[in-house]
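Task: sequence in, structure out. Protein: Spermine synthase.
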Amino acid sequence: MAVLHYTLDFKLRAPADVSATVRGLQSIFQEQEMTENVHDSEGHGYLATFVGKNGRFAILRMHSHGLVTFDLQCLEGDDVAQVDNLLNALEKKLKALLDGNIQRIKRLPALMRGSDVDRYWPTADGRLMEYDIDEAVYEKDSAYQNIKILHSRQFGNMLILNGDVNLAESDLPYTQAIMGSGKEHYAGKEVLILGGGDGGILHEAVKLKPKMITMVEIDELVIDGCRKHMRKTCGNVLDNLKGDCYEILVQDCVPVLKKFAEQGRTFDYVINDLTAVPISTAPEEDSTWEFLRLILDLSIRVLRPGGKYFTQGNCVNLTDALSEYEKLLCRLSCKVDFSKEMVCVPSYMELWVFYTIWKK
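Result:
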């Protein structure tokens, strides 16, 4: 059982007459059989709570600086028409009572709290997004993370790792951007994919006729879930760990990269699709930034002359984080250069930065 939280705000040009406004609203609450309880706001305007039938609970506040807020909580399954009538009546009455003093009215759709299927996820820069999620199709806790695949009517199935939206079936622009946005020639090349358990990069790369793709993904449960529920993204490439031109290693990428560097094994392209918060680090790494530096250094070591390293950055609004990452590129064991582009990833609902890095 979820709770629906409705909000109605009136931003005023000047503080309202509290007594007259409250008297004007009393008939509405009486009709709704809601019991009023006035609270001491310690000189910060008027504050009252109302309790009504069907478990309804409301807060009316008239702030001393000229803002009127009304919050209404109802249980899921409450009579929607009755709730709308209450909100409509309040809005109409407040418009009449505050006529000439209203700067802005804002009424938001109900926030659903505590539902079985979560539909709210923050963007990377802290804004709240509501998705049209109607079903949870997969959920597992692996040794590394919580894995969810949720269905969105707009974006298709969405992979959520530890509460972060990773990739949806709509997000081909993400995959294309992290592979070089169609500017690279993969035919006959050797490719290393770090992460990528959703299979999107592997699926698109196989189409380009490379010589060999090695993909290193630590979490087999991610592969299992995406194989079953993200087939619009991965096609059939996750059905087997080996194919005609690819191999999937279910391992931690750090020791694999170290082994490749020791063996002198190199690649034309390295694509870093690891999660934003690292899943696993070796004991010597003590922070996310150190982990990123280690992955970069190791990846550059296994990159052939003329090869390229692709990775996601972050939300375009996180300028400090992006700047820190670019400073990190100047502190690697060898000199590199880079370019970046901004791409709108559908399910992220924000612009995302992608980097191309190569040895100088």
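Residues 80-97 form the longest helix (18 residues).
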